[in-house]
Amino acid sequence: EEQEDKVLQALRLYLRHLTDRLVTDRRFQVFKRPVDTTEVMDYLQVIRSPMDLSTLQANVDANRYSTLAEFVLDADLIWRNALSYNPNINPMDRRIRQRAHALNDTMHFFIRDELSEDFERKCEDIKASR
Ligand SMILES: COC(=O)N1C[C@@H]2C[C@@H]3O[C@]2(Cc2nccnc23)C1
C-alpha cells in the first residue's frame, strides 16, 4: 500500500543516516570492513556471524530491514563479535572492546533520541500484516 511504502522508505532513510554517522566516526574504523579472515585465520572458528558497518549499509540499501529491530539484530553483531573475539587484557584487545562498547552506546543513544516508538510500531505492524 502506498502509505506503507512511504513508512518503509522513511525507515531506510533513517537507517542510512544512522549508519553513515557510525561509518565516518574515527573510533569505529576497525568495524568499517569485514575482518580479513585470510589474515585472522581462526576468526570464523570463533565468530559464527561476522558483521561490519559496510555490510550493514549494503543491507540497508538492499531493503533488507523492514523494522528497526531487524537492523539492530545485525548492528549489535558488530560490537558483540568484537567483545567475543578480543577478550584478553592486553592493550590491543582492551582498546577494541572500548570501541565496541562505544559503538553500542552511540548507536542506541542516537536511536532512542531520534526514532519514536510510534514509528517503530508502525513498521512492526506493516511487517505483521504482510
Ligand atoms: C572488528 O575487528 C576485530 O575483531 N579484529 C580482530 C582481529 C585481530 C587483530 O585485530 C583484528 C584484525 C587483525 N588483523 C591482523 C592481525 N591481527 C588483527 C580486528
Can you tell me about this structure?
With about 130 residues, this protein is mainly alpha-helical. The protein is built from six helices and no strands. The radius of gyration is 16 Å and the shape is elongated. The ligand COC(=O)N1C[C@@H]2C[C@@H]3O[C@]2(Cc2nccnc23)C1 binds near residues 30, 39, 82 and 86.
Quick overview:
The protein is mainly α and 130 residues long. Helix content is 70%, strand content 0%. The structure holds the ligand COC(=O)N1C[C@@H]2C[C@@H]3O[C@]2(Cc2nccnc23)C1.
Order of helices and strands: HHHHHH
Number of strands: 0
Mean pLDDT: 98
Number of contiguous helices: 6
* Percentage beta strand: under 5%
How far apart are the termini? 11 Å
**SS-based structural class?**
mainly alpha
What is the fold's blueprint, element by element?
Blueprint: H1 2-24, H2 43-46, H3 53-61, H4 68-85, H5 91-114, H6 117-129
Helix pairs in contact: 1-3, 1-6, 4-5
Bound molecules: the ligand COC(=O)N1C[C@@H]2C[C@@H]3O[C@]2(Cc2nccnc23)C1.
Residues 30-31, 35-36, 39-40, 82, 85-86, 96 line the site of ligand RH7.
Q: What attributes does this structure have?
A:
6 helices; 130 residues; binds the ligand COC(=O)N1C[C@@H]2C[C@@H]3O[C@]2(Cc2nccnc23)C1; mainly alpha
